[in-house]
Amino acid sequence: MSAPRPTFVDELSARNFVQDVTPGLAERLAQGPITGYVGFDPTADSLHVGNLVPVMALAWLQRCGGTPIVIVGGGTGMVGDPSGKRSERPVLSLEQIDHNVACQRAQLTRFLSFEGENAARVRNNADWLRPLGLMEFLRDAGKHFTVNYMLAKDSVKNRMETGISYTEFTYMLIQAYDFWHLWKTERCELQMGGSDQWGNITAGAELISRKEGAAAHGLTLPLLTTASGAKFGKSEEGAVYLDPRKTSPYKFFQFWLNSDDRDVERWLKYFTFFSLEEIGSLLSDHQRDPGKRTAQRRLAEEMTDRIHGAETRKGVVEASRILFGGADLRAATPATFAVLAGEIPTTRLARAELLALTAADALVKCGLATSKGDARRGIQGKGFSLNGAPIAAAEDRIQGEALLCGSYLLLQKGKRNYALLVAEG
């Protein structure tokens, strides 16, 4: 007799990815797959890596046979969730909310399958919340909760000293209404979110119980901090976004590559689909020679592949080799130079103009030299390189065959100062 198939809670628990669950969820999962949802706040036009915590929970739900629903908060975004916030967020225009929802929806499709028997679904709660009348909302949701019940929730209690508007005070009921609506229309029995969402999630389960006499469930995931105590998902430049216009693929790769040795096991368990055995093997390899950062490198490769694609990741890796030495420039691809152009000073010139430059002119154009005289002195001292080779003479003209991939010149000052000239047209 074969062993029962692990539920997604079994999988998450084995990865230490569960904070709290409502009573009875394990028994419900033993009966068969479940439909569950996570809501996403549309206050930005890109998700960041911190959002990947609930995204991965949805992905595991699907892999274990359940049906994931992504709720983008085009309706709740008009109010703002007070959970974990010290002050009220500005109210966005409907146009901005709709734009952000469209951007996030596109990103979420990279993690979930939208085909098959348990295809993921994307819903915008604006579809049922924006037409909802006040009297109808008060009748269907408001009358089922006492003020005392709401004041006892941490999301409200923690804001009582600084103040909370009535708008944000009602957020809990609006999220509860979402859960009830999804239970009615899609038989969604589970809501998941960060541990700061526990009060909102249990309010939804309570509303379903009172209105329908049915059981609904909640599961929360840990709020992540790094081993150094910092909030997960931040770099020196701020939040690490999935949108390459906000966080370049190169910086995205470096974020994961720079993971602390004390964190990398958790990040591999949380953010990849690698088996626990494969993760154990990676960590064993890493421990034999920590300087190679084997575990971090594999994590960075996997995450960059998933978000930006394998070709971009290859360009990122090759660009890193170029910037840190040891790469064959002639073997570099246009994708590599596209990555470099986002990370080092880049000047674009008409092809004819670029090919009319001397080496000294090129150094001044790209900003590595302050003047032709500065360029000449540096060239005499072997301080400047072109495509990895020291520049021989200041007055040598740029030759067409010097253009890498037919368009690029990589100039270098010393060991770590780079610039790129790009021929256009």
Fold blueprint:
Elements: H1 8-14, E1 20-21, H2 25-30, E2 35-40, H3 52-63, E3 67-72, H4 94-108, E4 121-124, H5 126-129, H6 134-140, H7 147-151, H8 154-157, H9 166-169, H10 171-186, E5 190-194, H11 198-212, E6 217-221, E7 234-235, E8 238-239, H12 249-257, H13 264-271, H14 276-288, H15 294-308, H16 310-324, H17 334-341, E9 346-350, H18 351-355, H19 359-365, H20 372-380, E10 384-386, E11 389-390, E12 408-413, E13 417-424
Parallel strand pairs: 2-3, 2-5, 3-4, 5-6, 9-13
Antiparallel strand pairs: 1-6, 7-8, 10-11, 10-12, 12-13
Helix pairs in contact: 1-3, 10-11, 12-15, 13-15, 15-16, 16-17, 19-20
Mean pLDDT: 89
Count of individual beta strands: 13
How many angstroms separate the termini?
A: 68 Å
Kindly give the count of domains: 3
Q: What global shape is seen?
A: elongated
Described by strand count, sense and barrel closure, the largest sheet is: 6 strands, mixed
Task: Please identify the structural class as seen in this structure.
Answer: alpha/beta
User: Helix count, per DSSP?
Assistant: 20
Identify the CATH class of the largest domain: Alpha Beta
CATH superfamily of the largest domain: HUPs
Under the CATH scheme, which architecture of the largest domain would be assigned?
A: 3-Layer(aba) Sandwich
Low-confidence stretches: 84-88
In CATH, the topology of the largest domain is named Rossmann fold
Helix content: 40-55%
Rg on CA atoms, Å: 27 Å
Strand order of the largest sheet: 1-6-5-2-3-4
Strand content: 5-15%
